Amino acid sequence: MSVKRLGAGSGNKLAAITAAVSGNLEEVTRQLERPVDRTRGVFERVALESVRPDPDNPRNLKLSWEELKNGIADLEAGRIEAGERTTRTRNLESIASKADSFKKVGQLQPIIVYRDDRGLLRIVDGEMRYWAARLCGWTELDAKVRAKKPTYLRLEQYAANVLRDDLNLGQQLNNLELMLDEARESGESVKSLNELAALMNRPRTTVQQWWAILRDGANEDVKAAIREDQITSLDAAYTAAQEPDAGRRAALLSGHALPARGAPVKTPRRGRKLSGVQLGKTKDLEIVRQLIETVGVDASLGEVDWADAKSVQLAWQKFMKAFSERVKRQKATRSI
Questions:
Q1: What average pLDDT does the segment 159-187 reach?
Q2: 127, 150, 173: which is the final residue of a domain?
Q3: Nearest Cα to 297, choosing from 317, 278, 277, 276?
Q4: Mean pLDDT, rounded, for 123-150
Q5: Can you spell out the DSSP letters for 157-171?
Q6: Which of the 8 DSSP states describes residue 34?
Q7: 113 and 88 in one domain?
Q8: What is the pLDDT of residues 17-73, one digit of tens each?
């Protein structure tokens, strides 16, 4: 792999040149003699094929190249309705937007990676930039390369992620849990509000709310609701975690109106009882053809253009009618 090393001291040289142009010789000397911290990484132009995402990154993207390509193709073809957009869809849109930006103005910010035990470059920060570069068809991108895995990897990722407005509550929870696990594994378990505050470096109110949710390994129901996007507000999650009444807590977690304190817990009803089953919906006409041909019916479907949705829909209706009649006859025979 050919790597173009920009060098950790390039910033010193640039600052020295700037000082020289302005005629400040003392500043020239100071910049050139300033020590360089190589443990923080060096800037390089690295091959994309040597870079790998962190599977445990708190953003929890867990993308594959095939999923990204197919998802972007569905978006561009308009196959995803506005009402069907999910967090996953928005992530794909964000990556596509970054790729468009890369094509216009290039990569303005390097990704941060470290060299793992196999010699591969594992991403610390910048996974969406990595996928955007792949969408552009690039073979290289700018990176800041660490020689080894950072001691406080999850803490660094948290520091980077909290600056982003697009991090949802579930991703924040995942980030914090990984960070607490990392602290525990290093023998520095977080056991108090003050210790969490020192770790998070966030407003006190925010830390207090998260501490109420995370402490003592409790509130698993609240965490599950956050992960499943049933709760998307930290205020709502905090209120649920503080609620001792089971009925009111269940209502908070499901987004319903609060019952009176002490009221019995009701299992939430979701609409009327189902009286039938939908057989699904597909845009792949080949699936319909194979279903009809595999099951088979003793009825003529007429001439079917398997490439035409209306023709296939008509054939499906005839098939279902004939198949229903067959099932009725079979039931009648069994009852005799």
A1: 79
A2: 150
A3: 317
A4: 92
A5: HHHHHTT-TT--HHH
A6: S
A7: yes
A8: 554 445 555 654 554 454 444 556 788 899 999 999 988 877 777 888 999 988 888
CA angle 272, 276, 277 (to 5 degrees): 110
Nearest to 88 by CA among 168, 163, 157: 168
- Are residues 99 and 144 part of one domain? yes
Number of domains in the chain: 3
Q: Among the three residues 150, 182, 206, which one is the final residue of a domain in this structure?
A: 150
In the DSSP assignment, the letter for residue 141 is E
Average pLDDT value for residue range 159-183? 78
Residues 115, 44: one domain?
yes
pLDDT at 7: 42
Do 122 and 214 lie in one domain? The reply is: no
CB-count exposure of residue 169 (10 Å: 0-12, 13-18, 19+): middle
The residues facing 111 across adjacent strands are 143
CA-CA distance, 275 to 162, in Å (whole number)? 47
Banded pLDDT at 114 (limits 50, 70, 90): very high
Inside any domain, residue 21: no
Integer Cα distance of 245 and 263 in angstroms: 9
- Which sign, positive or negative, has the C-alpha torsion 253, 258, 264, 269? negative
Assign 20 to helix, strand or coil: helix
Determine the 3-state secondary structure of 104 from DSSP. Answer: helix
Question: Domain of 314?
Answer: 285-335
Predicted TM-score (pTM) of this structure:
0.47
Edge-to-edge strand list for the sheet holding 4-5: 4-5, 42-47, 140-146, 111-115, 121-125, 51-52
